[in-house]
Amino acid sequence: MLNIVLFGPPGAGKGTQSQKLIARYNLVHLSTGDLLRSQIAQGTELGLRAKKLMDEGLLVPDEVVIGMIESQLANNTSAAGFIFDGFPRTVPQAESLDALTQRYNTGVTCMVALEVNEEELVTRLLERGKTSGRPDDQDETKIRKRVTVYNTETAQVAGYYATQGKFHALNGIGAIEDIFGQICAIIDRHQGAATSVTDSQEATDEVKA
Ligand code: AMP
């Protein structure tokens, strides 16, 4: 299975690149932000509680988003893999993702972080807010709050994957196609590495047999 964590601050281009990656690699897109917005749209109790935090640019509690990811994995057992977009955002979420994927004898293949400076993020999100209808995209103070939350709480997740040799950072400013090409090159390297380990293990097994 190919499980990609697409990482980066709000407005870095994760959603755009996710759409291209699901088409290229036949993956299921799991965005915790989208899942939460769907709960809000359905008017569920979870959605009502999450909305208050989301409107302030704060994180929703770990157990809420971990529970949503757990049920999405259970509902998509025949998927070729997943793109995790906006998840994990804390180290406990990253630890849970490892535990959840292990249940299916798989794990996170790699994390790709899109790096974009704060001023560019603010410009992009205010522009997106004109059409997205998202309250958290329409107020500069809330946007800056989300970037601060990313820098203080979420950026540590990069270290979690770096210690596993799975972390890659890319400049998220540039042509969408160029950035897409760079992400694919990283994924293909990881896939190639996984395949050659399997191949060499099979070759060893054949020799033993
Ligand atoms: P996004 O669509 O990824 O920008 O997420 C929008 C908002 O949803 C965030 O500002 C958080 O309030 C909440 N959210 C989304 N994903 C998570 C997550 N993994 N952990 C905590 N809160 C989240």
TrEMBL record:
<keyword id="KW-0545">Nucleotide biosynthesis</keyword>
<feature type="region of interest" description="NMP">
    <location>
        <begin position="31"/>
        <end position="60"/>
    </location>
</feature>
<dbReference type="GO" id="GO:0044209">
    <property type="term" value="P:AMP salvage"/>
</dbReference>
<comment type="subunit">
    <text>Monomer.</text>
</comment>
<protein>
    <recommendedName>
        <fullName>Adenylate kinase</fullName>
        <ecNumber>2.7.4.3</ecNumber>
    </recommendedName>
</protein>
<feature type="binding site">
    <location>
        <position position="93"/>
    </location>
    <ligand>
        <name>AMP</name>
    </ligand>
</feature>
<feature type="binding site">
    <location>
        <position position="146"/>
    </location>
    <ligand>
        <name>AMP</name>
    </ligand>
</feature>
<keyword id="KW-0808">Transferase</keyword>
<feature type="binding site">
    <location>
        <begin position="58"/>
        <end position="60"/>
    </location>
    <ligand>
        <name>AMP</name>
    </ligand>
</feature>
<dbReference type="Pfam" id="PF00406">
    <property type="entry name" value="ADK"/>
</dbReference>
<comment type="similarity">
    <text>Belongs to the adenylate kinase family.</text>
</comment>
<dbReference type="InterPro" id="IPR027417">
    <property type="entry name" value="P-loop_NTPase"/>
</dbReference>
<keyword id="KW-0963">Cytoplasm</keyword>
<feature type="binding site">
    <location>
        <position position="32"/>
    </location>
    <ligand>
        <name>AMP</name>
    </ligand>
</feature>
<dbReference type="GO" id="GO:0005737">
    <property type="term" value="C:cytoplasm"/>
</dbReference>
<feature type="binding site">
    <location>
        <begin position="86"/>
        <end position="89"/>
    </location>
    <ligand>
        <name>AMP</name>
    </ligand>
</feature>
<feature type="binding site">
    <location>
        <begin position="11"/>
        <end position="16"/>
    </location>
    <ligand>
        <name>ATP</name>
    </ligand>
</feature>
<dbReference type="InterPro" id="IPR033690">
    <property type="entry name" value="Adenylat_kinase_CS"/>
</dbReference>
<dbReference type="GO" id="GO:0005524">
    <property type="term" value="F:ATP binding"/>
</dbReference>
<keyword id="KW-0547">Nucleotide-binding</keyword>
<comment type="pathway">
    <text>Purine metabolism; AMP biosynthesis via salvage pathway; AMP from ADP: step 1/1.</text>
</comment>
<dbReference type="InterPro" id="IPR000850">
    <property type="entry name" value="Adenylat/UMP-CMP_kin"/>
</dbReference>
<feature type="binding site">
    <location>
        <position position="134"/>
    </location>
    <ligand>
        <name>AMP</name>
    </ligand>
</feature>
<keyword id="KW-0418">Kinase</keyword>
<dbReference type="GO" id="GO:0004017">
    <property type="term" value="F:AMP kinase activity"/>
</dbReference>
<feature type="binding site">
    <location>
        <position position="174"/>
    </location>
    <ligand>
        <name>ATP</name>
    </ligand>
</feature>
<feature type="binding site">
    <location>
        <position position="128"/>
    </location>
    <ligand>
        <name>ATP</name>
    </ligand>
</feature>
<keyword id="KW-0067">ATP-binding</keyword>
<comment type="function">
    <text>Catalyzes the reversible transfer of the terminal phosphate group between ATP and AMP. Plays an important role in cellular energy homeostasis and in adenine nucleotide metabolism.</text>
</comment>
<feature type="binding site">
    <location>
        <position position="37"/>
    </location>
    <ligand>
        <name>AMP</name>
    </ligand>
</feature>
